[in-house]
Structure formats: structure tokens, C-alpha cells
Amino acid sequence: MAPIISQGALGVEEFLRAYPGMGLRPIRDNRVELEGIFAFSAESDKHGRVTDKFELKIDIPNTFPKELPLVYELQGRIPREDRYHVNPTDHSLCLGSPLRLLTILAGVPTLTGFAARCLIPYLYAVSLKLDRGGEFAFGELPHGRRGEIVDYGDLLGLGTVNQVMKTISYLGMKKRRANKLPCPCQCGRRLGVCALNSRIRRLRQLAERAWFRQLLLDLSRIDSSKAGFHSAVRSGLRV
Amino acid sequence: MSGSLTDEILTELAQAIEIPDGAYEAADGRYQDLGGWLNDDSKSQSARYQPLVSPQGSFRLGTVTRLWKRDDYDLDVALNLQEGITTKSVTQYQLKQLVGTDLNLYRAERQIQEKLEEKHRCWRLKYQDQLQFHIDTVPCIPQAGDVKAIIQERIIQAGTGPLLAHDIASYAAAITDDRHVSYQRISDDWYTSNPEGYARWFESRMKMARGLLESRALQARVGHIEDLPAYRWRTPLQMAIQILKRHRDIMYERDLDRKPISIIITTLAAQAYRGAFELSATLEEILRNMQVDYVSPQILNPVDPRENFADRWNTPDGRRLQLKENFHAWLKQAQRDLGMLLSASDYGVLREHAQKRFGVFVKESAYGRPTANQSPAIHVIRDAPPKPWRR
Ligand SMILES: [Zn+2]
Ligand SMILES: [Zn+2]
Across-strand partners of B133? Predict the structure, then answer.
């Protein structure tokens, strides 16, 4: 059947059954776009239950789940401001850092997985914030590269900016070459024999080497500025 | 929700997208006026060729839907010069000009402001009155006997009974098209068009609900349903097609050039119909049976099976617009959205859906109390969800 729209791999059908308020938009450039009312009900131990709905557009790249969908809120219920985590340029919602989202998606590589694990937590937190004010329910990251480095430090179990940057540079190399180099965690051994290597192996499956090389470039740009370092430090990472 | 309640809501939906009262009659008035004028030999050159003006397309079929973010209705009429002109005696260009000259005189006499506009196959007259529409007049002549015979044979091969096939083929007409290679030369290979044959075929599909049409005729105090124009039949098939077209109009309101065209929707729906009386059952039949092969799509014109409506999907233009993918995307979405209306147990969801996907506000009072809220499955957010971030 229809390769583009039935795409079992994407799980569009399953998603639309679970969220019938959402529907297919016309097909353009081989991309699947969904639009409509996204109704959900979610709960967490700390903050209780939230039932809400938002009018959304979800733009799914045909490389999903290797690449992330972009999500837009259409009614303007979510203020288009930094403190609500709406991108000032294209107004897409900032659901999390790319590697974090890709890591989560690797475990549940379908659209419903994306909805449950990446989208609903964000909407849940926004809904609470709109209702009661205060902080994002599950925390938030500083904007820009520093927030990204903080999140990757967390993801890798590493404590300093240098360690994170070195690890990302290794991810941009061939496995065999990186394994022979000194481990970024400063355990004094080669990467190949350190426990960090298993975490790195998992990340390698999420993206190509070129993607990590580009990431390193992006992150280095801000890292060279003092401000980047200092805020990364303030957010809990050592230099 | 009970079946009859679903039907009540669906009927309300169908009524909301029906064109305003008197619109069909107003259109009738327009083309009858044009026909009368063209038959007056003191005024028109066409008069000596027995001109017959008849509506075609959705006005003929009774499947016009109320405008959705568009500015005017298009009323297509065929102007058939029934006697005295053949492909051996005039060129397509000459026929087009003959009709154009008459229409220009008609326009002046009726004081229609806008200029006559030439299209590939027709002349367009724009009316400016309370009901906004334009008339597209397609000049044509009866198709040659041997061509009709070929068409008749092909219709029978495609599975239509011989009597109906004969009736349909008898209406085949030869039309002009300024993109035809021999547009300005005498040639016998004019394109064929058969809107009246198509309407007869469509009526034969509606007549599968025979008992229903008999009672319609009785109500209207006419002997036969054929004594009523098709738009007064108000069959569930017509209403279902209007609903499907409205769904298409909304889904494609920002992508007009990618939308599935009405002739495809109408043909497939009519073929999928099995004669149900109720609107809900009709929609179920249509959605269950309506399908097009993805790999080699074939939507044959029921009145001229030499033509495949899906051929355009495979042209450079059709591929650029992804017409095939868009047809399937639309069909899937229509199946889901109508399935939702047909099975909704939650009144609030149903109203929201009727509004978003069909552009219709279902009145709150009409169906009593909303039923219990159907809430979505509850997601439990446990291990560390992603933290919002942007670059
Ligand atoms: Zn943000
Ligand atoms: Zn180590």
C-alpha cells in the first residue's frame, strides 16, 4: 500500500488512531504533516493529572525516527516566549536537546512513542505552567549551546565541559580509531576498555559521524566565548 | 450513539453544506434564458443548428456543495449544436468562434459587465448578482456514429449493461480544445466529452435505492422520478458525495492544486455505493468499497473507459504535485473522519470534529444532553522526561 502515508515504520496510522483529533495534511515534498487537536491526559506522582488539548501541527521528516519531528502550536495559547520554550524564529516547540530526544526515540521509534515520551511531557508542563505559573514541571535547560552541553553531560554521566566536548569529538571519528585514544572521563585508560564506551556505542547508533562532527563545530563556537563557559559552570558543569 | 441519532446529525451536516435555497432554480433560469436566446434565429447564428443548452457537472448531478473559501460557483453547460455541423464541415476553431460571437451578443444584450473569457474548452461568462456564479459554456456537436459505437462497446466491456451503455453512448459529444494539434484544421479526431451520459450513469447508480426514489416521486406528486431534475432527488448518494467534497475542500483549502478532483470522488463514490437508504449506511458502504490500486491506479471514466482519470497522476505535473499520494492521503483521512462521525460516542468530540473537518456547526440544542466525556488514555510520566531546550 501507499509507501508514504501508511508507513508502518512511522506509525502514522497508530498515532492517528490514538489521537483522532489529529489528521493528515496534504502531502508536499514527500513529507507527512499532521494537524488538528491533540488531546491528552497525563499524570506524574509529583504534579498529579493534567487533561488538556492543544491545536498542533506536526511536521514529520521522511527520515524519522533518525530525524526529529517539528511541532507547532497553532492557536497561540502557548506564549511565544523563551520562558515557555517556543523557538523565537520558527515558533516550533523546544521539546529537548536533539541527542536526548533521539536517545528516547531509539527506545520507542514510532510516532506514538514520540508523542508519549517527548511531546506529552512538554505539553503537560506547559499546561501546568499556564494554569499555575512557576517552573517547568520536570525542569528545563538553559537556552543555547550551554544547555545542550549540560544535557549531554547528564546523558553521558560526565562532569566537565571538556569531557563532553572530547566525547563528541570521538563520536565524530571511526570507532576503531576512537577506541585507541585516551578516555574522555580521565580514568587514564583507553576509551575501548572504559565503561563510558558502552554509552558512546549507544549514541553512535543515533546519528552519523558527520552529524557529531557538525555538532562539535556548533558547540565549539559558543564554547570559545567566556560567557558560555561561565554559564555552563553555573549550571553545574565543571570546566 | 444510536443509529438514528447519527443519521440525524449526518443529515444536518449534509443540509448545512447544501447550496442556498433556490440556487439550482436560479441556475436553471440562467441556462434556460441562454438556451432561449440561442434558439432565436433573429439574434443568434447558432439558432439554425438546433442548439441545446444543458447543465453538466455537479449542477446536473445535484452534488453542488456550498462554497468554502471560494468566491463563486461554476455552472458548466454544454451547448450542443445538434444539426448541420460535423467534423468534416468545420474546424474546432470555427465552432468555438461561432459560439463565441453569439455569446458576446448575448452578453451585450443582457448587460453583463465582465468580458467574455476564453478557456481551453469553453467560454466563461461571469454574472454579478446575489448568487455569485459564472457559466462555462462548452461548444460541442454530436459525436460521429462510429465513435459512439466504439464507446458503447468499451462501456459494455467495463461491465455496464448493454441498454444503459447504448443510452450513455448516444449522448457522446465532440468538443473543441485549443490544445488539440488539429484545432485549426479539419480533422475527425476531436476530443470526446459526455456529461449527459455521465449524468445518466450517475442516475443509474442512485436508482439502486429504488424504493427510496419511488417515495420521493410520490412526495413530489410526479409519475416517475425522472420527471424531477436530479437535484431534487436528494438521495443519500448525492449527500454522501457532498460531504466527501466538503471534507476535501477543507483539507485542501491551502493546497488547491493538490486536491483530489470532484469527478474522481464522484465516480468512485457512485461505484462504491450499493443502494443503501440511510445516509450513515451509504457512507459506510462508500468508505468500505472505495479504493484505488496504489501501484497502477485506474479510475476509468464510466462513460468512456478509454479515459483513465488517474492518468494525470503520472504526468510530470501530477508527480510534482504528488496527486497520487494526495488522493490516498485524502481517502485515508476521509475514512477516519467519517468513521469518527459514524461511531462517535461523545457528543462534544463529534461537534468539534464536524466543525474542524467539515466546517459545520452542529447545533447544541438539537440532540439533548452531551453524553459522558470520552477521555483519552492516561499517560504516566515516570522516568526523566526531556527538558525543554532550544539552540
Ligand atoms: Zn526552549
Ligand atoms: Zn574512562
Answer: B73
For residues B342 and B34, what is the distance between their CA atoms, to the nearest angstrom?
A: 43
- Is A124 within 8 Å of B381 when comparing Cβ atoms? yes
Distance CA B368, CA B364 (A): 7
Contacts of A144 in chain B (CB under 8 A): 390-391
Q: Judge whether B34 and B135 are in contact, CB under 8 Å.
A: yes
Query: How much is the ipTM here?
Result: 0.81
CA A83 to ligand 1 centroid distance, Å: 7
The structure's pTM equals: 0.87
CATH number at residue A43: 3.10.110
User: For the segment B205-253, what is each residue's pLDDT rounded down to a tens digit?
Assistant: 999 999 999 999 999 999 899 999 999 999 999 999 999 999 999 999 9
Supply the range of the domain harboring residue A149. Answer: 144-234
B367 touches B347 (CB < 8 A): yes
Please identify, among A132, A159, A193, the residue that sits at the C-terminal boundary of a domain: A132
List of chain B residues whose C-beta atoms are within 8 Å of the C-beta of residue A93: 388
Residue ranges of domains in chain B: 3-380
Residue A175 lies in a domain: yes
Q: Is A30 a member of any domain? A: yes
Q: Is residue A138 situated within a structural domain?
A: no
CA triplet B17, B264, B176: central angle to 5 degrees?
105
Same domain, A104 and A206: no
Pairing mode, if any, of strands A32-44 and A48-60? antiparallel
CA of B78 to the centre of ligand 2 (A): 82
Return the bridge partners of B378, or none.
A41
